[in-house]
Amino acid sequence: MCFVDPVRQCSDCSLVSQRELDFYDKQLKVLLGGGTFVVTLGTSEKNETMTCRLSNNHRYLFLDGESHFEVELTRVSSLQILTDPNSPGGSRASGMLLQYKPMGSQDPEQLRLETAQDHKGAAQWLTAMHKAAKLLYESRDP
User: Fold this and answer.
1) DSSP label at 24?
2) What Pfam families does the record tag this protein with (predicted)?
3) In which element (H, E) is residue 123 found?
4) How many domains does the chain contain in total?
5) Prediction pTM value
6) 1 pLDDT band (50/70/90 cuts)?
7) How far, in Å, CA of 111 to CA of 5, rounded?
């Protein structure tokens, strides 16, 4: 005996649903697990090794190291995946540049995350974050 989903979708909606299902099954776990990055806030010369992960309610990026920092995702204005030009094809993700407006401020700030020693976990996290941003961008109303 098997369950048949009674929801009918057009082919376009079916493709979107399949991508969302793939994201929730695979990428969300990676984002919740986090990755280790060298983090630079703003134009500061000081950086810190931190674990970056998505909060359990999916509303914040938590950065934990010697200090704790949070970015509310609704305050993010741009996200850019940085690539390593020395990698084959120059397309391996090496970091992320995030612009956001802190609570109570209208001035945008910048957050730079670069892969640390644990490159594999950080690279997987960056790939998942890129897929999340792409999924959100594609789901916007035209």
Assistant:
1) I
2) ZFYVE21_C
3) helix 119-139
4) 1
5) 0.81
6) very low
7) 43
